[in-house]
Each structure stands twice: as C-alpha cells, then as structure tokens.
Amino acid sequence: MTDTLFFYLSKLAWALLSPGNLIIIIFILGSLLVLMNLRKLAKWLLIPNALLASLLLSYPVGDWVIKPLEQRFSIPAQLPDQIDGIIILGGGEDLKRSLSWNVAELGLGGDRYIAAKKLADIYPFAPVIFSGGSGSIQLQNTGAEGHIAQQVFNDLGLYPSRLILESASRNTYENFRNTQPLLKPDGTYLLVTSAFHMPRSVGIARQKGINVIPYPVDYRSNSRELRQINFDFYDHLKALEAGWREWIGLTVYFFTGKTEHWLPKPASTEQNPASTQTPRPNPFEGL
C-alpha cells in the first residue's frame, strides 16, 4: 500500500468511524427507515443511538477512552543534561482559520508550541524541528503549516536560525519518515506532541531507530473527582473523538507494520506514571 493510498483510505475510514459522524449517520438512516415504514428496524437503530447520544451529552465518557493513552507516557521527572534537538509534531495549527484570516491561528494542540519554546529556553543551543503538513484532503500543498509554525515561534521569541521546518507530512508516519534525514543517527531528541498521541508517535520513532524522550502535553481528560454530569456535548465529544481515533490509529499502524507494538510503553529507563513516578505537586492548589 502506497503512502498516498494509505492517506486517502484513512480519511475515508475516519469519516465513517468518527463517533460524532456515526451518531448523525445512524439518526439519518433511522429517519429514512421510518419514512419507508420500516419502524421496527428503525427502533433498533434510533433507540440505542439516542441513549448513547444522551450519555455522551451528559457525562464525559470519552475520558474512559482517552485517559489510558494519556497516562502511558509522562513528562520526564528529570530532563537530560544534553539533547541534540527538540521535535514538535504538527497538529496544533488551525489551518482553515489561518488561511481564512491570514493570521497564525492555533487549535486544541496549541500547547505543543508553548512546551517546545519552554524546552528551547532550557536548551538554548538545541535546534527545534517542526514536522507537520496538512491532514486535510482538500488543503494539500499549501505550505501554510510551516508558515504558521514559523510565525508562532517568531512571536514566542525563538531565534529563526534555530528552527527547522518540515511541512510535507500528512500523518504521523510521514512525520518521522520525513524528519529522519534531518536528525543525527545516534542523537537524542525530546519529542513534543499531545499526550494521547504520544504512544503511537513513540512507536513509529522506535521503528525508525530515532531515539526520543517523550514530553507529552495537551491533555484532554479530566481527573476522576472532576468528572461530573454537566451536559457539555462538545467538550465530551472532543475527548471521545481524539481517543477513539488514536486507538484506531494504533491498531492500523501495528497491523501495517509501522510500529512494532500495538500500544508502545515506556522504556526501562523511563518512569511509568501509573506505577513508579512520584506524584507532582499541584501548582494550582489553593488558587
């Protein structure tokens, strides 16, 4: 399977498997069955679908899907003394709004830029390698992702000479395939991406022989004590969509040989946040 065919098939599959799309598609199919006087069959579709939509509306069920991914890797308890660079994966850009208004707009993953700049300040001589192109079928070859990244880092005060841009990648596999020639073969790189996206990213990096230290950001789930009935459908759907998509991605990447393990885990030299890491103090406690 060529990379281009893989890209188009993944987009088509997600259009059908997206939880939000599925709920709407089933409602449409059920309504058509009612119009065709197939009410009994329509009930088998509409009633479970309505119950699922009601549950998603009232409670953050997406947390159960995405939190195991976000807990898989943690921010290092201690950063290394030296690194060869900082890799930030694209995905924090709001491409359509950026193109529409001719400004650099960030979306839910904008935390990636803040974290990358923070690490760049800690390691003032390390290059910052941005890798990310458009994941949209309609918006290919615009080059806007690299321009957005450059503008955001300029605004954050990063010296332009430290920034290396790779903006031809359409998915996570291409991120590492296209970035690998820019890296030292035996180098060590901090990897910045969303926490739920980190397991798949680390798995691909290891498959490519790229030594990365995970630095996850952009958490989407809530702690157990903060999960509550609040009727915020959009907020609940954000976590469910991201988590469900990532589980599908992990499965497809494993069976197509893009990763060696279905759910990559921390290396023996890394701490597992679910078992050995000392709890971090809450900087917001008391506010």
TrEMBL record:
Lineage: Bacteria, Pseudomonadati, Pseudomonadota, Gammaproteobacteria, Thiotrichales
Protein name, entry field: DUF218 domain-containing protein
Gene Ontology, cellular component aspect: plasma membrane
Biased segments, Polar residues type: 268-279
Domain DUF218 residue range list: 84-249
Gene Ontology terms: biological process: Gram-negative-bacterium-type cell wall biogenesis; peptidoglycan metabolic process
One Pfam match: DUF218
Transmembrane segments: 12-35, 44-62
Positions of the UniProt region annotated as Disordered: 265-287
Position of the signal peptide: none
Species: Thiomicrospira aerophila AL3
Alphabetical keyword list: Membrane, Transmembrane, Transmembrane helix
InterPro entries the record matches: Cell_Envelope_Assoc, DUF218, Rossmann-like_a/b/a_fold
